[in-house]
Structures are given as C-alpha cells and as structure tokens.
Design goal:
GO cellular component, one term: cell surface
Strand content: 15-25%
Low-confidence stretches: none
Radius of gyration: 21 Å
Number of helices: 14
Catalytic activity: (2R)-2-phosphoglycerate = phosphoenolpyruvate + H2O
Strand order of the largest sheet: 4-15-14-13-12-11-7-6-5
Bound molecules: 2-phosphoglycolic acid, zinc ion
Largest sheet: 9 strands, mixed
Cofactor: Mg(2+)
Mean pLDDT: 98
Function: Catalyzes the reversible conversion of 2-phosphoglycerate (2-PG) into phosphoenolpyruvate (PEP). It is essential for the degradation of carbohydrates via glycolysis.
GO biological process, one term: glycolytic process
Length: 423
C-alpha cells in the first residue's frame, strides 16, 4: 500500500529542471524516479508542464511538483503499488485531459515509475523481472549515438544522430566494448583531422563533418581502426520533423532543400553505400503519405522507426499499422507519460511485427529505468546515447548489472534484432 508520495525539482543532464518523485509503501519499501526531457520533441507528445516566467529560463517544474504533492499524492495514497494499471489509470482520470496537460505528464510519469520501482523493491525482485515476469531475459543491442548534429549540437550536420550498432557481438558486454573502443578510435581520428571532439547532448562527438556521407564514413573508419569493422553497422535518426517547413525538407547547415521523394532517394543511396540497418524519422511526423512510399520502397530491407511519428501512443501506432507506415517504433516513457500506457504500446507493436526500441531522451538523469524496461519487454534494442557521460552510462551500467545477474540466462540477439536488414 502506498503511504508516501513526494515530488521535488531536480536537474537533468542539460542543467534544466525536471521532476523527481518518491514513493514509499507501508512495508517500508521505497523508491524514486526522475523524468527525462526531449529537445526535438514530437508535436503530439504528452505535455511536459513547465512554469514559464523568468527563473530557470522558464523551465521550472514547481507546478508539476505541486501536483505530485497535492492531487496525485491524495489520489494514489492507499492504493496497492502492485496494481500498476490502477495507479496509472487513477492519475490519468484525475488529470482529465488526453495529453496529461493539466497535471503534467512529467508529474504523472514520475509517480508511475516510482510506484513500479517501489513495488519491485517490496517484492524483492529486480525491476526488469517485476515488470517483465519470468521470461524477461533478452539484453538489448545498443544503438550508440556517436556523432551528434541537428537539435542536439551546434555543428554543421543537419541530421541529429549517427549511431554505431555493434550487432556482431555475442553478448551485451562485448557489444559495449566494441562501442567504447570504436568511440575512442573515432575521437582519435577526429583529432588527427583537426576536427572538434566536443560532444553533443547525448555524448556523441559533434564535429563539423560535411555531410551524412562523411559522418557514416568516419564511424566506419573508426570501427576499422578499432578492429571491429566486421561487427558493426550504422543506424540513423535524422529527426526530420525538425527540418520540415512548408512541405519541404530544408537542410540549412549543409545547404539545399529536398522534397519527400528526394529524402527517400537520399536514404536509399546511403543504405546502398553503407551498412545501415535502421532509419528513424526519415520523414516528418506530418508527412504520412510520403512515409507510406518510404515504407513501400525501403521497408523490406531496413528498419524504419517512427519516433515523432508515433510518439509512443497506441492511437498513432494503430494508424501506422493500418496504413503500412514504418515497421518499428521508438519507445519513450515520457512521450506518453505512464508505464502502463508504454507497455500497451509495446504490446501492440510486438503483436503486429513492429520492432520496439526502448529510448532515452536528449535530456536525461541518472535514472536508469529504461535499461530495465528494455529487458522486461525483451525488446532487443535500446537507444541510450554514446558510451560516455554519466547520464548515458547509467543505463549501460544498469544493463551490465542485469547481464551479470542473469548469468547464463542472459540472451543477446545480435543481428537477429534486425531481421529486415539481414534479408
Ligand atoms: P529528443 O531526441 O529526446 O531530443 O526528442 C531523441 C530522438 O529524437 O530520438
Ligand atoms: Zn528520434
């Protein structure tokens, strides 16, 4: 039984305020959870409540914290923490909006995740096992964002993320080693070329490379140098909703404008030249008709991930399934704002053959819940940044702990996580 609910404002990895919530049970079990925050957010995401005004750049979350300590605490105190769906539904009901705009998705999500963690502590089982049950055993292939651009960096790259995918590894820890060694080789290579080794919001380097072609080539050069060229592939998240203006894709930093079909041609050409296994938000969130064409043309050989497009929401995903748009979904807990709804979205995706990639936000905290969520749902893929910076490594370190705990039971899918790219 929940006896204690307390929210407070803490900081995220960009130095912006965010919500942390503690939940305590009558048994003495206790847990806290902190809420992440995006920069290139989808238009239809659940609403992150911020105070506005002068202080904290308008980003304070005192109102959301007040809602945790007021209405949410009043409503969920006395509920059974093991009954996650009832707790989440109670909060959704008192919020009363479709987008959690009144209480704030940040307030509701914090309480939702802290409830799950407290229930796991009470049951004396790890979070991944509490959420996923006896069959939770698959460690995810990490999609490691080693070159940052777009809204996450001030360099010359229009596209947001260039990720290293160490799918040739036998285990999660080997995948992490391949990622780390390639990341450091990339750092050395950029230094030699006189390029910046400063990092972007997700810990990847943010050099002034000329184009997506140069970024992909640099990553493969680094993998070659580290001795891992045959074990890696590339995943892209160009986050093109950010580039879509008046029906056209404006590549400002690189110079040039493309229409939707031009973008598809670009992805096809990149996939011909480089070992690309996954492209996320290759088209904009409101460009559904062109998304259909993209899926028709490239869906047979690439994972096509909807992030801004689906916003972890069953309604948008249902439309995608019906209209044959995309074949994978990025899963971000704060896009929808509760654990139960996140699990609903994952279930719908998996039942319909859509791959699920559990994901961080560009603004993160030391909270590593998504690592457990990836294993709980046997998703097989996680996106949680470069293998550097504590906000990102917190998740990788938690996965190392889980792998260690599972021992011989830990499975690692490797390239099997990308069935489309293999054929
Ligand atoms: P965001 O970026 O957290 O800034 O939205 C991550 C992504 O687009 O996948
Ligand atoms: Zn994205």
């Amino acid at each position: 039984t929940i006896v204690h609910v307390h929210g407070r404002q803490v900081l995220d990895s960009r130095g912006n305020p965010t919500v942390e919530v503690e939940v305590g049970l009558d048994s003495g079990a206790f847990a806290s959870a902190a809420v992440p925050s995006g920069a290139s957010t989808g238009e239809h995401e659940a609403v992150e409540l911020r105070d506005g005004g002068e202080a904290w750049g308008g980003k304070a979350v005192a109102r959301a914290v007040d809602h945790v300590n007021g209405e949410i605490a009043d409503r969920i105190t006395g509920l059974d923490a093991r009954d996650q769906r009832a707790v989440d539904l109670a909060m959704i009901e008192i919020d009363g909006t479709a987008t959690k705009a009144r209480l704030g998705a940040n307030a509701i999500l914090g309480a939702s995740l802290a409830t799950a963690k407290a229930a796991a502590a009470d049951a004396g089982v790890p979070l991944y096992r509490w959420i996923g049950g006896a069959n939770a055993h698959v460690l995810p292939v990490p999609l490691m964002n080693v070159v940052n651009g777009g809204a996450h960096a001030q360099n010359s790259l229009d596209f947001q993320e260039f990720m290293l995918v160490p799918g040739g590894a036998e285990t999660f820890s080997e995948a992490l080693r391949i990622g780390v060694e390639t990341y450091h080789a990339l750092e050395a290579l950029l230094k030699e070329r006189g390029l910046s080794t400063s990092v972007g919001d997700e810990g990847g380097f943010a050099p002034d490379l000329g184009s997506a072609y140069d970024a992909c080539a640099a990553i493969l050069d680094a993998a070659e140098r580290a001795g891992h060229r045959d074990k890696v592939a590339i995943a892209l998240d160009p986050a093109t909703s950010e580039l879509f203006h008046d029906g056209a894709y404006v590549l400002e930093r690189q110079g040039g404008t493309l229409d939707g079909n031009g973008m598809i041609d670009l992805w096809a050409d990149l996939a011909d030249r480089f070992p690309i296994v996954s492209i996320e938000d290759g088209l904009a969130e409101n460009d559904w008709a062109t998304w259909q064409t993209l899926t028709d043309r490239l869906g047979g050989r690439l994972q096509l991930v909807g992030d801004d497009l689906f916003v972890t929401n069953v309604e948008f995903l249902r439309r995608g399934i019906a209209e044959k748009v995309g074949n994978a979904i990025l899963v971000k807990v704060n896009q929808i704002g509760s654990l139960s709804e996140t699990l609903d979205t994952i279930e719908l995706a998996q039942r319909n053959g859509y791959a699920t990639i559990i994901s961080h936000r560009s603004g993160e905290t030391e909270d590593a819940t998504i690592a457990d969520l990836a294993v709980a749902t046997n998703s097989g893929q996680i996106k949680t940044g470069a293998p550097a910076r504590s906000d990102r490594t917190a998740k990788y370190n938690q996965l190392l702990r889980i792998e260690d705990q599972l021992g011989a039971q830990a499975a690692f899918p490797g390239w099997d996580a990308f069935p489309r790219a293999r054929s």
